[in-house]
Amino acid sequence: MHCSLVLTASLLVLTLLRLTPAASAAACHPDDEAGLLGFKSGITADPSGMLTSWKKGSDCCQWFGITCLTGSRVTALSLVGRPGNLTTSLSGKISPSLSKLKFLDSIYLQDLNNLTGPFPDFIFTLPNFIIIYIENNKLSGPIPARVGNLTQLIAFSVEGNRFSGPIPSSLGNLGQLSQLKLGGNRLSGAIPATLKRLSNLTLLSLERNQLSGPIPDIFPGLTSLISLSFSHNKLTGNIPNSLSILAPKLRFLEVGHNSLSGAIPGFLSKFQALDTLDLSWNNYTGPVPKSFANLTKIFNLDLSYNRLTDPFPVLNVKGIESLDLSHNLFNFGSIPKWVISSPIIYSLKLAKCGLKIKLDDFRPVQTYFYDYIDLSENEITGSPVQLLNRTDFLVGFYASGNKLKFDLGSLRFAKTLKYLDLSRNMIYGKVPKAVSGLSKLNVSRNHLCGALPPNKFPAASFAGNDCLCGSPLPPCKA
Questions:
Q1: CA distances from 123 to 101, 118, 150 (A)
Q2: Count of C-beta atoms within a 10 Å radius of residue 452
Q3: Residue 442 near residue 421 (C-beta atoms within 8 A)
Q4: pLDDT tens-digit map of 207-232
Q5: How high is the pLDDT of residue 324?
Q6: InterPro entries, alphabetically (predicted)?
Q7: CA count, 13 A, side-chain hemisphere, 347
């Protein structure tokens, strides 16, 4: 009986403790609370109040961005802003006090914009890390070689910061890694050959850096790779033949904006799972391999700004979404039928492709999805009115340097239209009021006349016409 009374009294005390404010604090380990409050003290600006709930004495497992999966211990810190939105930013430095969170295994500090300082050292004191996403901030300095000691990592991303220096070769020690994203920094030097040891890697992004030298022969070890991006660097040579090992799985291959040269490798036609291929802004020469007809699943193809020549193969695609063949040495004459017949195309860029069509005759199967059309620097005649009047979501239309002849006032402007370039044609009539809703406009060197509607564009947008007047041009005569 005595034991029963003691047990009942103990349960009553526990129940009362749970109901008191102090008891709720017990759910959060004091080391974790101190570590997180130390992080908060290093933040100098929090315009959206992201850390408002972080209050001493309250349960830190209930704070915004905190996850506790090991009893009362914090296992994940997740503070994520909205890309490009400064109201969801955090300013300040990442406090070393986070080293007190002994069970922390995942950190997400993404799109906070204004976090500064070096790569956070506290990470090396915590052996359990499996996920590190510190993206789109302003961290700087080198990526420490010690990152190769974090052998349990399955995802490592520091893209969109200001890290400089070489890519540590020690990254090759991270054998569990599935994602490696270092894009959008200031990294330089060669791509380390040690990356070939990352056999579990599905995504490798080194884009938008200052990497140089040839693409190393790392692909025989990367047989799980689905997405590869080396775009916007200073890489030279050509794509190694060993890349063909990835043909069964690779879906995204982006090596645009480099200095790659030679002929486009024929083995790329083996990549029948390929969704996106970007070889733009390189020094590729010669014709596109005829075997590209095998790329039946490709949705996004960008070969622009090379020195590619005819003939262009017929692609056996069921539908292409985005196509850019601009600024090569092609002489297409007409727009290929496999382009016109695509039911899902939204971006078509064929600038300087030797087109000699009458635009009234361009009648694609669908215009509903179009958001960008660029037909600049061709020998196109006629009027775009019929085409553009069928588009509801068009954002940009570019047709400068052609022989278009139509009344600009007859053009219907989609509500979404932001960019319009019709310069260097034979367009006549008045400039309609609808141009005031555009972000960029160029109708220079045509045969337009009359008073300009209220607008925010520079005089260069209207220069070289017959008799336009009004701001920003000289005033109209009474």
A1: 10, 12, 9
A2: 21
A3: yes
A4: 999 999 999 999 999 999 999 999 99
A5: 98
A6: Leu-rich_rpt, LRR_N_plant-typ, RLP29
A7: 11
